[in-house]
Amino acid sequence: MGAPLLQLTGVSRSYGKRTVLHPVDLSLDGGQCVALLGHNGSGKSTLLRIAAGRDKPTKGKVTFDGRPMTENDARVRARVAVVGDTVACYPDLTVRQHLQLVAVAHGVEGADAWIDHVLADRLLSEHAKSLPSGLSSGQLQSLLLASALVRPRDLLLLDEPEQRLDPDARRRLGDLIAAEAADGVGVLLVTHHAELARAVADRVLVLREGKLVADGTPDEVLSDDAADTTWQTGVAGAAR
Length: 240
Known about the structure:
alpha/beta, 6-stranded mixed β-sheet, 4-stranded antiparallel β-sheet, 10 strands, disordered C terminus, P-loop_NTPase, ABC_transporter-like_ATP-bd, ATP binding
């Protein structure tokens, strides 16, 4: 057995005397989806940034395919796609030009045909010539997802990708995540939506005030009769 695609061992993060993430262990293989649930400020996004190599843990270590994870590693840039929780676009580039830029940067062959496919998949074909200023918040979120899909990836890190999406778009997001895992991509998903986690995740971790309070299968963690329900207020409700 080889090393997990992504492994976090005893990872914690402090800022001065304030600990925002207590020690967490997490491993993720290709074809697996792990979901992180929790309230705002629970440490989910901090853990995702550390997993992406965009922040360094105060203690512990992170490896990608058996090697230390760092954002500056060419292998990481080539094989890890991240969709953050903020929308960052070039104001003077159209939707298609954004995707062309990503495709060129990653040496994608047959880019035009693949871009057409991704635009259709994310329901952006009619907006291919639009600038970001002409898009709705949901369409901007779809553009972020499309930018990740148009490039090669072995690991997909998603920080609340359901934000700004309507119910139908969230359903299609679930289909997308399931398809990524079926294609062998490892997916780490930060979300507020318990229903999305239940639909796509193999494993669910719940953080509360920076501490891991639940870890198991969706049925174990999200069942109505789960023994520890201290984290559920607000999290399960967010899915409704």
